[in-house]
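ok so i was messing around last nite and threw this chain in just to see what happens. nothing serious, just curious
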Amino acid sequence: MEKEFIVSIYFNLYKTFLTVVERTEDKFILHYLNSTTANIDLKDISSSQSLESITELFSMLSEYFDKIKFLNIVLSPEYVHNTIFPGDINNISDDVYELLNLEIANAFEDKKIDDFKINLTSIFSPTTMTNEMLLANLLPKTIEDSINQMFNDYGIFINEIYFNSSALVNTFLFNYPEKTNENSAIICFHKDVLEILLIAQSRLIAYEFVVRDDETIDQIVEKKLQEMFFNSKIANAENLFICGTELSKDVFVKCWEIGALLSADTRRLNPFRMFTTELEERDKEYCSRVFHLFTSCIGGSLPFYLKNENV
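result:
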């Protein structure tokens, strides 16, 4: 039987990350992972740094060119504009389009709805577990065009574009099935922003995109978590999972202290926990040290756990 390889590429402002996963009937097998020396700037793929990193990325991919079954892209949230508003993903009405048009008019001076690839994801009420809100991710089509151009030059077709929030949920729900009935928070640290997600009963119940300002990390995290608990009408989260390219030892300690105050079990989100692998011991050791960098990338190799729609 021909092997089914899923290649996931995560475009981050720090670096570009790559994983190659084989999917069988009953498991996922990690075959390869790597990252570029510098990032690929999707807003300027013709810059000298981007061109060097693109060459480096495709050199890493070359062994798998004729074996790729699916190529999925994951995007760092800095490339995406997001907003949350009332709505039911099973009944996308004209009101949804009106709200999207209003958001675009307020956020952009010269853009229209046709200038974006738009994806909607359900946010559920934690009390009734019904879909009451929608998370809208708006990707400028100029970014999508840059991605397509990059891979079309190599004759590779993109199967799916994942937004980072969905990728993080995929990684969590696949790797921690025993936690699905508990309240869990995921915090992903990026260069200038952080994302905070609350998950209950395998559903997304809250999402925050936070721009890092003059407040310290511990002040931001504690304040936002308390706000999200209050707004979601939950007392706390039993688990606090942290990840991202800006997760340093100091940030981990601060999050652990906040978790202790909130009676939450704090740990790095391990994207490889339920994977098998054929990696050599040296590569396994590398994975154990840096797996928090690959949480988003691995999420792009997994099926969607949250219901979402492109509009």
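not much to say yet. The first helix runs from residue 48 to 61.
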